Amino acid sequence: MSLFHAEIIKIRVTRSSWLLGAAGAAFWLVSLMLARLQASQIDATDVPVDQRLSASELAVELYTAGTISGATFMMLFGIVCMSSEFQHRTASLTFLASPRRVRVVRAKWGAVALVGLLSWAVATLMNFLLGVWPSAGRLGGLLLSDPGVQRAVVASMVAYVLWGGIGVGFGVLVRSQVLASTIALALTFGGTLVISSLVLLTDVFGGWMGEAVTVFPTLATLLMMSPPGQDGLQPWVGAAILIGWAAGTTVAGTYALTRRDIP
């Protein structure tokens, strides 16, 4: 527990943690404003009926507004927490104090997961107060008991935690903070854009291309928050993919960390 407490203290006193939090809050606010704009058009007559979202779908958008941007910043936060040890050359001191490097990674994982839970809780509460509550009249209520809403809110929590774990994994694998962030963003978003463009060629490659896109964390997260059976896939598939990313990067990074020297 002493390692965990030490990591919490580092997070509290590190300026980059607060800067990432402020940037994440700004992106969250934009996402909430867009969700509220969408909810305000639920009765718009200029939108075709078959293209309108149901009250349940709009409630999901409001309750989970900012999940993708928030999860992305959690990934960057995880990278910063881990790679800052190498950037500021404090890794040697940290591992001298705790020679078992696996315990250090585990403590950082736990600290980042706690920050992810707190971030999700604050974002969800603000989404409720600033998004769902003012739109309750249009939605026909708060829809707290709606199974789709409950599932999406829980999935949002899982995303915040697992994306943070993915960041810790990348931070262990790649010591350079800038390089780790670039690779992580390229894989999560750049890869998604490239593969999504290939989905247009499903007539050539087959329908499996549409399902293969979800291998990237961004679309896996959206799948996890979607109704069961959408696009022929279940939400648990998205959760499994995110768990695979978090576990894979962390295990690979921890193995490499135990095999190399620390400057």
Characterize the structure shown.
This protein has 263 residues and is mostly helical. The chain has 13 helices and no strands. It has one domain (2-259).
Compact overview of the structure:
The protein starts with a helix and ends with a helix.
Element order: H for helix, E for strand:
HHHHHHHHHHHHH
Query: How many strand elements?
Result: 0
Overall outline: globular
Structural class: mainly alpha
Let me know the largest β-sheet: none
Percentage beta strand: under 5%
Instruction: Tally the helices.
Output: 13
Q: What is the alpha-carbon Rg in Å? A: 20 Å
- Taking all residues together, what is the mean pLDDT? 83
Low-confidence segments, given as residue ranges, are 44-51
Q: How much helix is in the residues?
A: over 70%
How far apart lie the N and C ends?
A: 26 Å
The number of domains: 1
Feature tags:
single chain; 13 helices; mainly alpha; 263 residues
Fold blueprint:
Layout: H1 2-13, H2 15-40, H3 55-63, H4 67-87, H5 91-97, H6 101-132, H7 136-139, H8 147-173, H9 177-198, H10 202-205, H11 208-212, H12 217-224, H13 235-259
Helix pairs in contact: 1-6, 2-3, 2-4, 2-6, 3-8, 4-6, 4-8, 4-9, 6-8, 8-9, 8-13, 12-13
